[in-house]
Batch of 4 targets.
Target 1
Amino acid sequence: MKLDDYDKQRRYEATVVSSQRITADESDAEIREIVLEIAADFSFAIGQSIGVITPGPHALSHDEHFRLYSIADTPTAEAGKSRIVIAVRRVNYIDEYSGERYDGISSNYLCDRQAGDRVTITGPYGIVFEVPENKEANLILIGAGTGIAPFRAFVKHIYQDVRDWKGKVRLFYGAHTGLELVYMNEHRDDFALYYDEDTFEAFTALSPRPNWADPIAWDYALESRSEEILEMLDDPNTYVYVAGLEPVRDELDDVFARMTGSEERWHRRRAELVAGGRWTELLY
């Protein structure tokens, strides 16, 4: 589904409650946790996203810019007002033809907002990652960068709201450096709340040489646990959820092809998982 296809007619005015940098100061990656408050009747479910409208005018005669952000926490309310948490990475890029540097429209707009500022939002949209009704379902969660945001809410919901989860939950979190990890680093580890759960394990995958722009080392994180992962994939009660930038798909395909023995075998297996609703991606 393309961004232009989303219904943006119903809009809400949200107030920025707080904006906190959650990557280390020495990191080149600036990721901020932004808390929004909405006075209107606005409800959402685990796994949904909101849209953010950035006022223009923008390049190409766009009066406004639209971008989706996954909700990074379970529903909460203060004094009858709904609160939404999103994780936003400030994006800048170099045009490959002109060599000019450009700022991402929505990300810079949001990262520059301060407490008390107003933001126009839309949604909520979709439930990409559904919580299985069967508490014995196994979950393989693979998130890269800010793709960890929906899984923060997902895991919290499983262990604090659903409770008594019996299936295995394996979380794999990838980033180029440890400094880019959010919600699971030495300064703030929200997933530490669940490390004592018998069913939960979390692993990180980092680039071996981040200064050389090496890809995330999914091979080490996944292949070192290939026996368990392949066993879980053979279980019809296992679901795989993937979130992050689009290149993650190719990177994971390479790793799983090695784990299953060939590209052909893996592509056939993944197609079966997708068709059965057991492999779901949220890529952007």
Target 2
Amino acid sequence: MVKTNTPAPSPSRFAFSWARLRGYFGSGAGLPPWWIEVMIIGAGYLLYQGVQILVTGSAASAISRAEWIWQVQSAVHLNPEVAINHWVAGNDFLLYSTGYFYGILHFAVTPLVLIWVRFRHRGHYAMLRNVLVGTSLVALIMYWVVPLAPPRLSMENIIDTLRVENILSAADPTGPASMANQYAAMPSLHVAWAVWVALALYVCLWPRSWRWAVWLYPAATTFVVIGTGNHFIVDAVAGALLVWLCWFVASRVHATMRGSQPVPENDYIDVV
């Protein structure tokens, strides 16, 4: 009697295994097709914008917190906001360059770096993506729980440089921009995303000797958010610390998933 080796049935294209699920969150080996991630990230971004529009916060409490932060910073002589803001407002080059930096680079550089890591450094992608998602999620929760007014809305001697020159229609916003939460200053997501970009480049460019230069980007972003009157310096510090916290947590989760026993690839769970 001749034995025949019958191949195991292949899983449906809509099935996944626990091993692949761990790979999705813990390494670059089990990443889904790029278009699925684009859809997921796009839906998450729309959700983020929607929640930010719906959560407006209390103007009185947000301004009160901003005034308290300014008093504390002034007491410890950590209050460069007015000097930097007036320097930017008095220099046409700085005024326009910081305005367009604030309104464009924040939304362009981060997704471009995420795409670059996805296709060129897959081994680092899952953890870096998780850090970015975790940072954005925690920031959104903080905007909801602890609304904080930016300096331009809480301090009389701060100039709203984008509105003064109507950069990117800041003085007359339309559409979703006109409904955006104005009391979402703590932490600075501009600085947080900039720190994430620098972190991603630093990790992926290793061991090149000039990779330290990537930290100039979050430094420039910090200057921009303060110079335009959109954040206190503690907002920038909070944004940077949030990224490092999410990196610490993600690295531990990543290490745990990679060190766990693999689940057989035929242990599928059909999601149809």
Target 3
Amino acid sequence: MNLDIFKITDDQIKSWNTYGYVYSPNHLKKYISQYIISVEKIESLNKKNRESLFYYEKIKGVPRLCRIEKFLEDNKFLKKQILGENILGYINKLNSKHFYLYKEKINIKFSGGSGYSAHQDATAYHKLKGHITCLIALTEMNEKNGCLYISKLKNNNKLLSYDKNGCIKQSLDKKLLWQPIIMSKGDCFFFNSYLPHKSESNRSKGERRAIYLTFNLSSEGNLRNEYYKNREKSLNLNKNRISTIGHFKGKNII
């Protein structure tokens, strides 16, 4: 088996098997300019000409875009990349199993943009037996502009105590050891259902953008359309949220 094609090293396999994550620097460096241009094109689409779902938060009283969901059909380049060798192919090889795209989103933090409380993704997608998420850095991601923080737990395959919003209980959050994942444009970070993670607000003067792609085992079926139907129902019942769990710290605009 030639793993070099997918840029998977022995250390990355060990990290995946032990902690449930893989950091792959420069994974998409060759294509990152096209990624950025493609996201800009999606952001410029008006409501009548897009399938994407846009969400906004108030920053200093001004509406600012904070998330885009369900953008796959709005950009041919991104669709080809996501379902191609560099992302889905890599995930299949890393796990020695086949996966389907479950959902896709773009998280945007303008200066002053809000962060996300500590959580495990398994609470948001509890019907899945297991899944993997790929984070793609479209800008630099650091402690000042609200990068991802993770807590490394060996052989993490269970849920931690969580509250009514689906977030890790604050008393436990304070006890976990958190480390920032500093990323450059084009880096990728792959993680499983149980890796605890969170992020803080953007305290820089610039913008921070990242794509998050979640994949489910193909043995569970192609569930993307079903997910977005159920997601719509969930948000209609929880109009103050931008996700199926209440981890967003900002004040979203309904």
Target 4
Amino acid sequence: MKRVAVLGSTGSIGVQSLDVIRMHPELLSCAALGLGRNIELAERQAREFCPKLVAVYDEEAANVLRGRLSDTGIRVVSGMEGLLELATLPEADVVVTGIVGMIGIRPTVAAIGAGKDIALANKETCVCAGHIIMPLAEAKGVRILPVDSEHSAIFQALQGRAGSKIRRIILTASGGPFRGKRPEELRQVTAKEALAHPTWSMGPKITVDSASLVNKGLEVMEARWLFDVPPEKIEVLVQPQSLIHSAVEYEDGSILAQLGPSDMRIPIQYALTWPLHLPSPATPLDFRTLSGLTFEQPDTETFQGLPLAYEALRTGGSMPTVFNAANEWANAVFRRGGITFPEIYDILRGEMARHQVIAAPTVDEIFAVQEEIDAHCREKYKISLE
């Protein structure tokens, strides 16, 4: 029995992680739930899965949930201290880091330090702190098992690799809802349109990132750390049907690709049950119904999130944190209607241009950079996210 702590249990990844646990009660159990403030769903999850601990980041929401669960014996904790307690819970074997944003960095570092395996969905952890978490995981003997569909596909294609050398990683992208649009057309698009992803069901932040190709840029950075490959060996290819989730090309020209339906429960389950491929709650892919698979080069002139991500990765140090922090702010403001879609790229470019790079930032320095970016953007655009 593998005991799972789900950080971000009320979000898209968390809900689907619990689907997987529900399907395999003989192998998986829920040791803890962590969330922001959605206590309605959290209460239902807690009563069904009976975890030892529920960590609620929002203090007021935690107090309400504590009262609601007073008849269960489930302990409710709050704030960042609560998330850190979840991450280091002795009764948990693996932590699903399904929470979105840089808030996931400290709990992930704490979980690795406590010797927990990580089912990694919080890409910001690798983007901003890859230089910290990968050596720490190696030192602690911790497995970092990717949950993103693309990184799970790469991970699967690398199984049984032995001493074979990689020629390149092919990271696939759907192209998002604005695929084919020109720069002038993007000035008119709305947040509602950006949230209408053609093939995946994801949370709002990641869905907008997919529309801008920022998400793919973040995935390039994540791949660099997860698989220890330089940026020039990571190639992005648009695969609009979202059926080929990524591939690895070896030196002999062989390409191993992973295919499957667009259902995040497959990579989540593989991270939790590795190395086994078990029955999944996802609907199987039926090749008889496929009309074809197509491929395109990404339009990096229109969707500048991807080339800016490569620039940040090659610069290194604290620059990926700047890219990520500026995007978190711009993404949130765009979803509220405060800026146009192309202004996301303007904000990224501007914040990167003025930043003085820190060569190997500590966790505290990473968050200091984020706070400085937030403050500068608030002052420049006169917009608050409070």
